[in-house]
Write a structure and sequence with these properties.
It comes from Streptomyces endocoffeicus. Keywords: Signal. The protein is α+β, with helices and mostly antiparallel strands and about 200 residues long. The protein has three helices and seven strands; from the N terminus they run ααβββββββα. The chain has a seven-stranded antiparallel β-sheet with strand order 1-2-3-7-6-5-4.
């Protein structure tokens, strides 16, 4: 069998560790417990902070189960549906999973990553083509690269929904013809996976 290009060999090594950035949160209690109210306490409502509560408390705990097995088999032929969990030291913020396989001469790689911030607020994608009807804001970027005369086509879909960001990367190529995977197949596969991954945020 043909040898893999160096860049793909690197991708098939253990999955890179997700960078964990902890969000420090501090609270203080400025109430004066020594004061005794005179008379009945009036009805009060929670003080308005001007900031809505975030929609999502954390990302899916088991990111490798958010895509149907049928989709994994279709997008990454030959891959084990269990996938490879992306490690993170802060699972309350970042989780993810990847699948990759070389089926005969057909190579595919798919990964999904979640990043949930602790504050609410709409986010905006920078660059890429808009993907209408997906989350609050979504975009897709595409590129084709060549390594040792082997073409690889890749699509990256970034979806923002309230305080969560979902990123899907999907790429592939034919190691017999040396051609990159079909543009429509890679783009559609990435968007379809992003839709499923986003839906998993709501359980």
């Amino acid at each position: 069998m043909r040898s893999l290009p160096l860049t793909l060999v690197a991708r098939l090594l253990p999955v890179a560790v997700l960078a964990a950035v902890g969000v420090a949160m501090t609270t203080s209690d400025d109430s004066d417990t020594s004061a005794t109210p005179a008379g009945p306490s009036p009805q009060t409502s929670a003080p308005a902070t001007g900031t809505a509560a975030p929609r999502y408390a954390k990302p899916p705990e088991e990111a490798c189960t958010v895509l149907p097995e049928s989709m994994i088999k279709d997008l990454v032929p030959g891959a084990k549906p269990a996938g490879n969990e992306l490690k993170s030291s802060d699972l309350n913020r970042r989780t993810g999973c990847s699948w990759h396989a070389l089926d005969d001469f057909d190579y595919r790689w798919l990964d999904i990553a979640y990043d949930v911030k602790s504050v609410a607020g709409k986010q905006k994608s920078e660059g890429g083509s808009a993907v209408p009807g997906l989350g609050d804001d979504a975009s897709v970027t595409e590129k084709t690269t060549k390594d040792d005369d082997q073409g690889i086509r890749e699509a990256v879909v970034t979806v923002h929904q309230d305080n969560a960001t979902v990123t899907v990367t999907y790429n592939g190529g034919d190691f017999e013809s040396h051609k990159a995977a079909d543009s429509d197949d890679i783009r559609k596969g990435a968007i379809d996976a992003a839709k499923k991954a986003l839906a998993a945020l709501d359980g």
